C-alpha cells in the first residue's frame, strides 16, 4: 500500500514538474525566431466611437501596480461587441472580482491563447457560445464590455480591460501597438487623437511609463 502511495505521489510530482518546465520553456520562445503575430483591434470599425481609452502605464488609478495600468481600457456609451484579435482557443473564463466601479451585472475575464501569445478580455459579458476550449477565428464575437453606471460621472457605459502578452508566467504584458495590422494601427491613432488621455496630459501615449517601447 505504501509503495502504491509513493508511486502515485511520484507521478503527481512528475506531472507538476513537467507543467512548470513547459511554462519555463515557453518563457524563452519569444527569443527563438518565430512568426510575429498580426492582431486587430478588439472591436469593429463601426464601434470606433469610444468615449475613453485608459492607457497602459497610468498610475493615478493604479499607484501600486509595478508598471502602472497593465493593459488598455476601452469604453463606449453603447454595448459594442468585442471580437477576437487573432485565431486562437479560449483557455480561461472566470468571474471577475468586483472592483466597486459601478458594475451593474456579473462580469467575467476571458483569456484566448494564440500560439505563444495570450490575449485577455477582462470585465466583460461573454457571448453564450464562448466556453473554455472554444476555437475562435479572428473577428469572431467574444462578448461585450461590462455594464457600468456612474451617476454624476460617465453615467451608463460599457467597457473592457484588454491585455496582450506572451503566454507565460513571467512577462508583464506587451504594448500591442507594433503588433496591430496597418488598418488597426491607423484606427487606434485616430481614436486616441479624438479621445485623448483623461489624466491632464500626464500620459500622452497609449503605452506610457513602464510599458513605453515594450512592444518588440
Give the topology, please.
Blueprint: H1 2-28, E1 52-54, E2 72-76, E3 81-83, E4 88-95, E5 108-114, E6 117-126, E7 135-136, E8 141-150, E9 155-166, H2 182-195
Antiparallel strand pairs: 1-2, 2-9, 3-8, 4-5, 4-7, 5-6, 6-8, 6-9, 8-9
Q: What are the key terms here?
A:
2 domains; 9 strands; single chain; 216 residues; alpha+beta; 9-stranded antiparallel β-sheet; globular; Glucose Permease (Domain IIA); 2 helices
Overall strand count = 9
Total count of domains = 2
First-last Cα distance = 54 Å
Known CATH architecture of the largest domain: Distorted Sandwich
Main beta-sheet strand count, sense and barrel state: 9 strands, antiparallel
Describe the structure.
Strands 1, 2, 3, 4, 5, 6, 7, 8 and 9 form a 9-stranded antiparallel sheet that branches. A hairpin with a 2-residue loop joins strand 5 and strand 6. The protein is globular. It has 2 domains: 30 residues; 167 residues, Glucose Permease (Domain IIA) (Distorted Sandwich), CATH 2.70.70.10. With 216 residues, the protein is of the alpha+beta class.
